[in-house]
Amino acid sequence: MPTASPALLGATRGLLWLFLGLVAASMLIVLGMGGALAFAWPDTLARLHDSGAFIDPAAIRAPLGMMMLLFFAILIATAYMLRQLQALVASAAHGDPFAPTNAQRLRRVGWALVVTQVAALPIHWIASRVVAAGSDLGSAGGLSLGGVLAILLAFVLAAVFEQGSAMRDELEGTV
Questions:
Q1: How many CA atoms lie less than 13 Å away from 42 in the CB half-sphere?
Q2: pLDDT for 40-69, tens place per residue?
Q3: Per-position b or e across 84-119, b if 16+ CB within 10 A of its CB
Q4: In terms of Cα–Cα distance, which of 71, 72, 112 is closest to 88?
Q5: pTM for the whole structure
């Protein structure tokens, strides 16, 4: 039976840890920005008014707060997904990728991807209504074709892993 390349799995582990660190840093940034907006709103309002990026800077406090919460939810789902992928890679490194738990992990990855896509929809709707025409911020969020394909891939792979696990169990039962 062929085994996975230790170098490839090591590189994947390293990248997953790097991505998890970036997600953690992003969470801190979102929390910091949310706190800064909450405590420095009058100052922020004056700067936003002068920037011309928003339609009505006085009316965007609640939408910005909602966007921060949605970004944070996406980051939590992403961190959860990365932890599931780390467990999947560790299982593959130990030589048992078709374990039933890996099918569950892939299904969890699929659901985390669903959460990110669902949370991105209101982000796009909010951003498109509070920014001035022509601003880059208006295209934030929204449905991603790549994201939808990733969701489908995760759920299909989960089914493949379940079938592979069942076939292996059946084979071991006949030997």
A1: 0
A2: 777 766 776 666 666 666 677 788 888 889
A3: bbbbbbebbbeeeebbeebbebbbbbbbbbbbbbeb
A4: 112
A5: 0.80
